[in-house]
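Q: My labmate handed me this sequence with no annotations at all. I'd like to see what the chain might look like in three dimensions before we decide whether it's worth expressing. Could you predict it?
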Amino acid sequence: MSWLRTLLENLGLIDQPPPGKRKRSRSTPRQYRSERAYQVEVDANLHAWLEELAEQEQLPVDEVASGLIQQALQERQSATARLQSWKQLSPRQQEVAALVCLGYTNQQIAVRLHISAETVKTHIRNLLQRFGVRTKLELRQMLSDWDFSAWK
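A: Here is what I predict for the chain of 152 residues:
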């Protein structure tokens, strides 16, 4: 069995065939087709790096690759969820979120947007709930790789 097939099985992207059964049955149409659909080409440099990492971690290459792919997929899923949350915000909520991430205080945001400090607090409370965090610091950390320079 190839390390890629093992990796894909560990990720749950393809079904493991029953022992001794090699044909694709109608009940499991993805069983072998998925291996081709999810085949990943790794250039020589990346493969060498993967082997080195596996050696450092004292784990099999396929286990390290599986972990890396799972982590990348989880990060991508989280990034997509954050972007979806952002797109669902009103333009005013986006402004408040951007200013929070730029380090503005509630009072500074209120003055800049010509709204009351209580309105800012309400927007922030809604933002924290929308993004599933408890504090402005957590919101800043969650969106730390985003560019809010247009709101300066």
